[in-house]
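The following record pairs a protein chain with its ligand, pyridoxal-5'-phosphate.
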Amino acid sequence: MSLYQEIVDREQKYLLNTYARYPIAIARGKGVYLYDVEGKRYLDLLSGLGVNALGHAHPRIVKVIREQVAKVIHVSNLYYNEYQGLLAEKLCTKSGLDRAFFSNSGAEAIEGALKLVRAAGHAVGGAEKCIVVALDNSFHGRTMGALALTGQAKYRRDFDPMLEGVRFVPRNDIQALHAAMDGSVCAIVLEPIQGEGGIQESSPEFLRACRAAADQNQAALIFDEIQCGMGRTGQLFAFQHFGVTPDVVCIAKPMAVGLPMGSFLARDHFAQHITPGKHGTTFGGGPLACRVALEYLAILEDENLLEQVRRVGAYFTQKLQELVETFEIAVEARGVGAIQALQLSVPGKPILEGADANRLLINVTQDTVLRFLPPFLLQEKHVESAVRILRKLLRDAQKQTNG
Ligand SMILES: Cc1ncc(COP(=O)(O)O)c(C=O)c1O
């Protein structure tokens, strides 16, 4: 039996049946490439769902991890460590926000932010000031609080009752936003670019209307930048790309480039309502993850990677646009920088399977959207090889569709 088959059989027997995995078992990676257990090389345009922004086995990341594990991995939040404050300082300086909390995942960052805005709401308007306005088609994570903010029935069904007090409005619908707002609202939460929802951007006008509505109602504006933040738009924070500053921003995925880590950053006005005992975590903000996150931020600067994301991202957009102009089944190119998508009029699964077979790793979301979350190391030549494969697959799919 092959090693691949052994791995699959063991997982099928012993793992909770949560993941419909693609038929590839990864053994290692280097730069923008991954290698499976048989040694086949794949161009990685997905970076572990937006995590591996520095590709794989970046020498500086390997070096700091080696150094730090030999010193200390974990100390708990009962004690100070050298790196948590440094990372908070760096993120606050870069974002203009005041305070940071470190978690272990995106969903946990959302949970913490939710507790923060509820506490702030209660302090200002009593227990009734607890409503959160969220968007249809959103995705904020799988834990119960994050799920309650997630505006997609398919993720929520089977798990009722949800956390109370969430109102949903359609993205970019300013009228519906205004109708949902009143003094009982403690926060508006949204992804500036919906990721799992198919790379759908909020308009700057809508974001400005959210900013104003939050201010008028003494509510917090929370941006979930877990997928679109930390450099993916070509700016460190997606809100800097849109020019609207939130009160709270949630980040995660590439923060510690593969070590589990998330965070929310908040303005003091809201942050002051969390005091010792109200929130916490055993693992969050440990010295290893914080040191790696600091190294990640340093590498972004030293290698001028955000400039590369903007340049290569613009080239990628242009190439996706050409596919839209060439193929009837490719209906729209969306996104920016290292968060892009090609909307199809047909199911994306056959294209994804074809891409895997051609050793190109991509993803499909919302059934008909090809999603690309490449590492920031991507260069024009990688875009060209990816587009060459996509072109061939789209040509075949279009022939099939036209019968
Ligand atoms: C926008 C957004 N929010 C929250 C999450 C949840 O993050 P995690 O899977 O780290 O819990 C995700 C994950 O994909 C996400 O894309």
